[in-house]
Model the fold of this input.
Amino acid sequence: MTSKPRRDYGEGAIYQRESDGRWVSSLRVNGKRKYYYGKTRDEVKQKLKKAQREQEQGILATGPKQTVQQFLEYWLTVKKPTVKESTGASHEWYVRQVFGELGHVKLEKLTADMIQACYNTLQERLSSNTVRELHVILSSSLKDAVKWKRMTYNPCKDVKPPRAEKHDIQFLTPEQVKDLLQSAQGTALECLLTVAVTIGLRRGELLALRWSDINLERGSLHVRHTVSYVRVAGAGFRYVETDPKTATSSRHITLPKIVVDALKAHKARQVEQRWQAGSKWHENGLIFCDNEGGYYHIPALYKQFMSILKRAGLPHMRFHDCRHTAATVLLIRGVNPKVVSEMLGHSSVVVTLNTYSHVIPTLQKSAMDELDMLYTVAN
Done:
């Protein structure tokens, strides 16, 4: 005979067996009842709560019962506390791209052929680089599935992702930079482009800059944050602000006079912008913001940038090429690569030299010219 089951709100039946004094509870999983045992009622209660949470997340549907979608949704919840918010949102968007093709497949039945076919289908609407990034994330999740004994082998190991689409580095000459900035005068991007092509901040770093990060009197800037424009499953895009991507990305930069002057003029214009917005203005302290003080709209930024390039008679380029322009011009002008590396926030000078290897021949030629000037004896 057992004691009458006692049930707290939100939990299954918990009771103590008279035969051996053990506490028992149960939960229906996939049509079958699963039992949990313990020496105390509280121990069983905690086991039951854990099982209920796992059931909600899909983890109890293991082996032949768990689908790819169930596992990936659970994997996202496990990974979420360990990554940046922007990374978590990005991971969610990527893995949801495979739900339509693979979500219904039983996890242990998932094969490399299925994944390869899914990638081929996705390439009809997504870029090769996007599918490659998805492959990295899916492979990581299935690696965890093997580690957690949800499947015996990671089929991503036998899948060949599409080739990467390489973007050649484009950069402007100093003369072209002058044309760009002249074309940008009087536009909303005048100051932003001045900063971008001179000190090479990343787009996310530029749009997360606040007046509190700038000391106009000393002519210095502190990169403290970055903002990402991330895809959110079923909700388009949203802004997520985080700390810089690496320790070296958080850095102090000494500003040239052209940037200090541009920031001072921009600050005065923002006062007028705030006055015109009136009650619609939301003070976030952002230097580069929309007409109401919020994050600058990325699609609008690109559209305006393309318009300025066209007006200046310059070739099409990505906004990120403004950063490449800053780095290339500094290196060609003889600035120490270590200094350039620190300005850009690279993890090491090796990254800088590898990224801008196209500048090396120019640097070597300049060095040889210096040697000729130094050692050539006048006749």
